[in-house]
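Give me structure tokens for this 673-residue protein.
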Amino acid sequence: MAKNYASLPSELEIPINSILIDHDPEGRALDSEMLLRVIESIMHHTIESQDSQHSDSIETSGLELDDTICMTANEILGKCYRKESSHTITLDVLALLGRYRWDAKLLLALSAFATQYGQFWVVMQSKTRNSLAGSISLLKQFPCNLNKLDPVFKALIQLADTMIEVIKSVVRFEILPIDFVELQSDTVAATKKLIYMAAYWVVRSITQCILLLINLRAVGEDKDEQFRDRYAVSSIVWEIVSLKSKISSISTELRGRVDNCKRQTEKEIRKKLVNLFQETHLDNQEVLRILFALRDDLPMKQSNEQEKVGISSLKNKVVILLISNPELLPMEELFFLVQQTYDHPSHSDLDDSYAILWVPICGSDEWSNSEVTIFNILSNSLPWYSISQPWLLSSTTIKYAKEEWEFNDKPIMVILDSLGKITNVNAADMLWTWGAKAYPFSTSREKGLWEEEKWSLKLLLNNVDPLMTMWVEERILCIYGSRKLDWIRDFTAKIKDIQSLVPELEVVYVGKNGHSNLDSNIICVIEKEKLSKCLSLTKIHLFWHRLESMRRSKLRLGYPTDTDHILKEIEALLTINENTNNEGWMIIGKGSSTNTVRLHGNEWLKFITQSSWKNNLSKFGLVNAIRVSLDPPAAEPCSHPRIVRYKEGLMDETLICGNCKHLIKKSIIYDAE
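Here you go.
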């Protein structure tokens, strides 16, 4: 083997033109981050596993490979057996990989070596306990004793680590969006020249490493002179170290060049982002390309579809940028978000007018294996688009999201209209509240929806639970909450007296916010003793989460807490929920009617202990009977005019004015038409 290293060509002798003439990339790229993890795992596991059988699993579910790795290994092996020169083999391998980008070429070549190296070690580590591995070792004439080759294997690992470092620099350069920014031409040219040199020396080193694996069979019978004593091993180690030194020198210079290119790129992207959303665009394409600053023409994926997707798929659509950490949301909130967006009744009416693009941002500079695994599971399961390799996002884009959109690990939803203009820096709360009905999710639309809304049980419960959504339209509904079982038992016992007189009354426990064992126990008791209907623990969490979203939405839009009726009611409920000493509470109403009544535990006790409520029930109806019992109306008629559409039986009802608590005097007005 040593004679193959005798003459290493200088930089001037590397035939760069010959390398470039076969370089004709077809846009083929690999998941470089994941493939590098696999290669590193193989190279280091082979040494570490001699002492331990434990290994960390590597996430590979999103890794797609064809037979190119096997073809590359066979190309090198065949030419090594024919004793062709390392220089010739290097050029032939680069020609074979001509359709790939530079980072992919080097990754595939290194994968070919890692495969051969890993296969060798799988056999060597298993042969003493697996007869099949022992037979393969015998036929391949693998050495029986590897102890004297430890320095060689350690040198190989160090060389592989150095090659991985230089490949990482090539990967970093290849993903820079140099097509969207203007860099200094001499900087780019000098960097590319170093990449060509790195490609040659990495592939040549890989060729030599595979040749070494072939020659290891000579150790078994000590027939080859270069393995007969420790000096031959030292010679091999020296040759490997020489290659490592050569590549390390290129790697150091290349890293500096790529860092310079990255700084220039980030600076240019920052300039573009500052003015990007102030300019007028014909569509959203330029905004999305610059915002995600990826060189990949297909930077997205959609659910578990294998084919990657281009930015053009979002053209002429309102785009919801769902920015979060890799874990996204608790599972129950995630399912509710899907329900509010893609399973919402309004979604089918919009004819794909909007799309969600998930942009995960990691809290640290490096993604961990667990974060990659979680991202792959979620992105393959959820119905929306995702950035396919979010770990490659520009640091400028990440910084922009944190500074301009105030992303701080809690999910936000930034809305881009079809022209790429930001219409809402966080529409999360309106999506929790109204779902797809909130389209096009702009701030003005959010204000418009609140202007249309009135305080009602329908607003409180809409879409939280399908059965309750139906009940709220058809029946009188009483929702209540408490964490005191004695109060719950007493309340449900007494309200059953009312249910016997008002059959359409449904009573549902909606609990208090926050998961706890106490909540679970209360639900179990309510269901076991059949005290009332109740939401599941998950639905209880969603009910309160949605209520908090309503409060945030109102406050962000500047509604006053002292005069806005909806906000006052929301604040009152959340305050009750936060008060641990509170006995309990309830709200009674029907559908979208604003005629609702909210009671604290003491108010309920005051009402139910009065003897007059049964008489008032038939006269005023349940909600008004409660109101009249607690606050008797004045005898004089109400002076607040109110016009409602006529319906059968309306004139026979007794109505109480919500403003002055007086009896409403009814009259019929006829339309001239």
